[in-house]
Automatic annotation (TrEMBL):
Keywords: DNA-binding. The keyword Hydrolase does not apply. It comes from the Bacteria. It holds the Pfam family TetR_N. This is TetR family transcriptional regulator. The lineage of its organism: Bacteria, Bacillati, Actinomycetota, Actinomycetes, Mycobacteriales.
Length: 217
């Protein structure tokens, strides 16, 4: 029995098996977020993550099939945080312009506050496998859904059919992601407020072309 397995025994004695597995899974996800976000996915092994989590290696496979499966779960958790940050911002505004600004501010602030998030979401996730690429684009689709729900009441769908608007919004989301990636690569040198202003300008330019309401109330 390894030291980490002994540690598991001490830590979880008296807990139900399902609870023990759930808590080991959480610790593995936390350790993986730290490792992938600091050292990088390709520089991290299952052994390293298990050691950091204090979990015996044999327990890793009760929750994950391999390191790629773990990466996907970490990415989904991070993406959920990013989407929730945007949603929280959108709920605070009383006009589209305000909602966009508050939502983007929350998004960029989250990226600034925890550099592990953009490293995993923007860089480590890319080029791993077709399955991971699909997860990446699923998140982009989810962000497009948020944008579509926000602006549909303010869009002239007779002139711009929904399918065309969705295509435009996919490009818009991609532009915001690229702005965020560049900001991270530049070590956050540009103030957050300036980055938000730039992203809002891009959004406003698109809305000005597809929305019939100039004030977008």
């Amino acid at each position: 029995m390894t030291a980490s397995e002994l540690d598991d025994g001490r830590r979880y004695r008296g807990a139900a098996p399902g609870q023990r597995q759930h808590e080991r899974r959480i610790r593995l996800l936390e350790a993986a977020t730290e490792a992938f976000g600091v050292d990088g996915y390709r520089n991290t092994t299952v052994t390293t993550i298990c050691a950091a989590a204090g979990v015996g290696k044999r327990y890793f496979y009760e929750s994950f099939t391999d390191s790629e499966d773990l990466l996907l779960e970490v990415y989904r958790e991070i993406a959920a945080k990013m989407i929730e940050a945007i949603h929280t911002g959108l709920r605070e505004g009383d006009t589209v312009d305000t909602q966009v600004r508050v939502g983007l501010t929350a998004y960029f602030q989250l990226i600034r506050d925890d550099p592990r998030i953009p490293r995993i979401a923007f860089f480590e996730i890319l080029g791993v496998s077709p399955a991971v690429d699909r997860a990446y684009y699923d998140v982009l689709d989810a962000l497009v859904d948020i944008c579509l729900a926000l602006i549909t009441p303010h869009v002239d769908l007779e002139t711009h059919p929904a399918v065309s608007v969705r295509t435009v919004l996919f490009g818009l989301v991609g532009a915001i992601v690229v702005i965020a990636q560049k900001w991270v690569l530049d070590a956050y040198r540009q103030p957050t407020a300036d980055v938000v202003d730039s992203a809002c300008l891009v959004v406003s330019a698109v809305l000005a072309r597809i929305g019939p309401d100039t004030d977008r109330r």
